[in-house]
Amino acid sequence: MRRRSWACWISSARSALRSRPASRIPECRRISSTVSPVAAHGPILVLNGPNLNMLGTRQPDVYGRDTLDDVLELCSRTAARLDREVVAFQSNSEGELIDRIHKVRGFESGIVINPGGLTHTSVALRDALVIPEVPIIEVHISNVYAREEFRHHSYVSPIATAVISGLGIHGYAAAIEHLARIT
Predict the structure, then answer these.
(1) For labelling, which of 38, 47, 50, 117 has a CA lying 20 to 30 Å from the CA of 150?
(2) CA torsion sign, 106 to 110 to 114 to 119?
(3) Angle subtended by helix axes 94-102 and 123-130, to nearest 10
C-alpha cells in the first residue's frame, strides 16, 4: 500500500449543497467517493495525536500491527457503509491539532479523537474540543486502564460524549457508528 499524507482524508462524496468543497479546505483531499453524492450530514472528523503515525511499528505488543493507513481505511469503509463522510487529520503537534479543531465549527458533525499522549497532559486540547459544540468520542487502541497509572487520567474524557478503550482499531469504527446514529 502506498504511503499517503496524513494531513487530511475525505472518505466519501461531498454534498452538492455544502458551501466548502474539499479543494477549499486547507490540506484536505478526497480519497474515495463510494457513497451517494449527497451526504445528509456533515462529515465526522477523525483526529489522531502524537505518535499515531507510527502505528504498526511502535510497541506492536501494545498497539498491534495495524498502521494508520489501516485505521483510516477502516474509518473510510465504516463511513461509506453508513452513507457518511470522514475527514481525518494526524499531527504530532499539539498546536496543529488545536488549529484543526478550531476549523470544525459549522462544518463537521462530530469528532472521533485519539489524543495519544496529549490525553494525559493537554488542557489546551481539552479547551479547544469544547469550542465546536459537537459530540466527541475519545478512542484509545489499548486499554489505558490496564497500563501505567499515569495513563488512567484523561483531560478529554470529562467532555467526551463517550470513551472507547481497548478495542484495537475497531474502536474507531464503533465511534463512527455511534456518531452516525446520534448526528
Answers:
(1) 47
(2) positive
(3) 10
| Residue 137: inside a domain | yes
Cell of 17: 449543497
Query: Which domain, by its residues, includes 171?
Result: 9-182
Q: Exposed, middle or buried by CB within 10 Å (0-12, 13-18, 19+), for 7?
A: middle
The model's pTM: 0.79
Q: Which pLDDT score is estimated for 28?
A: 43
Count of structural domains within the chain? 1
Does residue 133 lie in a domain region? yes
Query: What pLDDT shows up at residue 139?
Result: 98
- Quick one: 157 exposed, middle or buried, by C-beta within 10 A (0-12, 13-18, 19+)? middle
The domain that holds 30 is classified in CATH as 3.40.50.9100
Active site residues: 63, 140
Q: What is the pLDDT of residue 105?
A: 78
